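thread from #wetlab-drylab

HS: before we spend reagent money on co-crystallization trials with flavin-adenine dinucleotide, can we at least see a predicted complex? here's what I'd submit
DV: go for it
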Amino acid sequence: MDHHKTARILVAGSGPAGLIAALGFAEAGFAVTLAGPEANGQDGRTTALMNPALKVLERLGVLAELKPKAAPLKVMRIVDATRRLVRSPTVTFRATEIGEEQFGLNLPNNVLVPALARAVAAHVGIEWRKSMVESWRLDTTHAHAVLADGSEISASLAVAADGRLSPAREAAGIAASVRSYPQAALVLNFSHRSDHAFTSTEFHTETGPFTQVPLPGNRSSLVWVVKPETATELAALDNATLSQRVEEQMQSMLGRVTVDPGRQVYPLSAASPGRFAQNRVALVGEAAHVFPPIGAQGLNLGIRDIDDLIGIASENSSDPGSEKCLATYDTRRRPDILARSSAVNLLNRSLLSDMLPAQLARSAGLGVLGSFAPLRAFFMREGLRPGSGFQALAGGLRKQSRR
Ligand SMILES: Cc1cc2nc3c(=O)[nH]c(=O)nc-3n(C[C@H](O)[C@H](O)[C@H](O)COP(=O)(O)OP(=O)(O)OC[C@H]3O[C@@H](n4cnc5c(N)ncnc54)[C@H](O)[C@@H]3O)c2cc1C
């Protein structure tokens, strides 16, 4: 067996970002080696992917088989469920307002990840080594990885899709500022008596958001952000008691609730690397950005990282890991990643803050969002097509000022 094969693109990490990157690069004509173990199927979370991210999955040929197991997101609501003096009005966004049938789809991770893994395994352009990268050596022309199985891979470009702790990021000498929040997300799925009408409702509470997202049938997924000790307490409740707590928290909006067996607790943190590429390594997915799960941003942003990286690499296919390519990638991704990360972190911090000015700003913020038509359209378009919201907002403001 040849243990010293040279591959042009090495993708490290086989989570959703790594699998999508491997498929995308292979479809773009690159020789790809993917390094990372197969998922264990224990991830009970769901991922809401917006229409632009779904277009990428469609191009990669995996969307059709996902659709029957996913629920469309047609309406998104934000409800201020804090007990504060100044509360924001409920804000409702409808996909039809921007001429779309749906904002996106909510997909169970244990449907999405195996479908991507099957597509990767079947692709002739991808060699998947189901082994961890143990060490990195980066020189001026190549990235070299030694795997746990003893084999070595050399590539022009290493795509770091190896998650929030990203050993590849560290090897590239990129420091990340990391912050942990006094919060954890309790994640579970549940069935309910009433129809969700493809509506997702995010209740904002003092400890963080409680987000219900539709699944097919009378079922939904839940991400409930609370203090870490509360998450542990809730996760230890019996099914009947927990079902009742979930129903109460939703003000019985969906009628009687029955939680599925199985719960997961995720501690919340944020991480921002100083650069998004350096020394033959480009960061994508959680290696490039970690923030709390508010407003379904994480993997949507990760898919945009991958799309941009493939675009830049395709224009420089002889040496996609060159300094010039990596500098272009860093510049191109910076505004999008910083805008998303700071918006989500700000929203999270304003929810946690007991200071009145933050409350007022948040109340005004959601109120303005709900009532000012160009801003509403901006918020929704930005969720769907990054960049297009700015044009629409500018257009709307010009119209207003002409009146
Ligand atoms: C509760 C919750 C809800 C969320 N909901 C949404 C949502 O609705 N919409 C949305 O867009 N996003 C959502 N997100 C964010 C989304 O889950 C993440 O963006 C996504 O999972 C990140 O994928 P990733 O592939 O970058 O990282 P991971 O999934 O962490 O994958 C990293 C992979 O790298 C591998 N790895 C690590 N080290 C090595 C090594 N040395 N060698 C090889 N492999 C290695 C790991 O084994 C792992 O498989 C949510 C997150 C949470 C916590």
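DV: The first strand starts at residue 9 and ends at 12.
HS: ok that's useful, forwarding to the group
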